Amino acid sequence: MAKKPKKADAAEGAGGEAAAPKSKKKLIIIVAAAVLLLGGGGGAFVMKKRAAAEAEAEHAAEVAEVKKPSIFLDVREMVMNLSPEAGVEKAKFAKVRIALELKDAKVESEVKPLMPRVEDALQIYMRDLRGSDLSGSLGLYRLREELLKRVNVAVYPARVEAVLFKDVIVQ
Fold it and tell me: For position 28, what pLDDT does the model report?
């Protein structure tokens, strides 16, 4: 009987040793696969980023070649009274001169006949403003954005690129 336990111990020792190398091999294979996947993913990311940068550079070169000078169309000077502030009896007036930035002369020929519609849209919007709405750079920025929206609605399907202030006076 003493021999059988020795054989069992020997078998356990051999089985234990055999199990350890198999698990180490599996671990090495799993780690190697993970490294390859991560390395391949990183390489693909770098290649994708490089391709996107090259495409962007090509697009920028095409745009630079095609870039035409903008056309500026003046809107006649407008003087209007503003809505009164709460508790203030004295009315305020605003004097505004603006220019419309257009993409090219073709758009200018489309917009010029629509200038009465543009001026009407501007007048209607600006008469609802108060003097405090035009104070500071933030007020003028908001005004510019609102005017641009309204002008583009008035001249649709043509498109105005920007509304530029030439003169803004609030009294």
Answer: 84
Residues 155 and 112: their CA atoms lie apart, in Å, by 9
160 near 111, Cβ under 8 Å? yes
Nearest C-alpha neighbor of 155 from the set 112, 104, 106: 112
Least confident of 14-23, 46-55, 56-65: 14-23
**Residue 52: predicted pLDDT:** 76
pTM for the model: 0.58
Helix (H/G/I), strand (E/B), else coil: 69: coil
Nearest residue to 73 via CA among 161, 138, 132, 145? 161
For residue 55, is pLDDT > 60?
yes
Greatest Cα-to-Cα distance within the chain, rounded to the nearest angstrom? 118
Packed helices 136-155 and 115-127: angle between N→C axes, nearest 10 degrees: 140
Cα(53)–Cα(46) distance, rounded to whole angstroms? 11
Residue 84 host element (H or E): none
